[in-house]
Amino acid sequence: MLKDKVAVVTGGTRGIGYGIVKKFLENGASVVLFGSRKETVDKAVQSLKEIDSEYPVEGMYPNLTDAHEVEQAILLIKEKYKRLDILVNNAGISHSKALYDYTPEEFSQIIDLNVKGIFYAVLPAAKIMKEQGGGCILNTSSMSSIIGQTSGVGYPTTKYAVNGMTISLARELGKDHIRVNAVAPGVTETDMVAALPKEVVAAISAQIPIGRTADPEDVANAFLYLASDQASYVTGEILSVDGGARF
Predict the structure, then answer these.
(1) Which member of 19, 106, 191, 218 has the lowest number of beta carbons within 10 Å of its beta carbon?
(2) Alpha helices, DSSP H only, in the chain?
(3) Are 155 and 142 in contact (CB under 8 A)?
(4) CA dihedral in degrees (90, 246, 214, 238; nearest 10)?
(5) Which helix (H) or strand (E) holds 135?
């Protein structure tokens, strides 16, 4: 579905991001994954190469809150691969702190990565995509962007912003043949969920209409669809992949 496409996936070393990278590779894309540290990037690339030594995957670790570093990394990818077809902005952080425990610095930190970090990647990537005649930008939103959450106000605030950025960029960049969409996952079997007691996970699952939490592959499949030509007329969408948990 992505044969000969070149993709960048931020936050691609674990969880949903790693699942997206793997799914894209399985479907013929060349992928550059971004992570926060060289050690985690190297480990993820090695893990993928152990699955298939022929996978065209490599890693980089620019500081996503530094506009210049992000731009330089994306320009290096353009220089090597001569194009950039897909940008997946998946990197993000969350806090579950009560408002009264938040500090302004913590709020700024989550805004810097979850919102500014996306903008910093979109700006150089969109310029490349416009020049080559089109492309696809995908953002990771969250179920909390639709229903909010009971604490940790910074995270849903950023995901509401991601939705607004996604829809606005879709309207602006459509004329340049750049599609922009987002996926809003529900509770997914990442490291954070895996660390929870089984009874807690069971209680969460009982509240989801489908009756289970998501596997990263469930979410990666949504990204695959939106990145592929099968979604050539889909833009400005926030696709919920949450088992109906928002109802």
Answers:
(1) 191
(2) 15-26, 38-51, 67-81, 104-111, 117-132, 144-147, 154-173, 191-194, 198-206, 216-227
(3) yes
(4) -40
(5) strand 135-140
pLDDT digits (tens, 9 = 90+) for 210-219: 988 899 999 9
CA distance 227 to 29: 10
- Catalytic residue, chosen from 18, 61, 120, 155, is 155
b/e per residue, 205-214, with b = 16+ CB within 10 A?
Answer: eeebeeeebb
- Could you tell me the pTM of the whole model? 0.94
Question: What would the two tokens of residue 137 be?
Answer: 């930008």
Q: How large is the average pLDDT for residues 111-126? A: 98
Residue 117 has which token pair?
Answer: 């970090």
- What's the distance, Cα to Cα, between the start and end of the chain in Å? 32
Q: Is 102 marked active-site?
A: no
H-run or E-run covering 220: helix 216-227
Rounded CA gap, 130 and 6, in Å?
15
Sorted by sequence, the CB contacts under 8 Å of residue 198 that are 6+ apart come out as none
| Single-letter code of the amino acid located at 197 | P
Distances 247 to 143, 147, 210 between C-alpha atoms, Å: 11, 9, 11
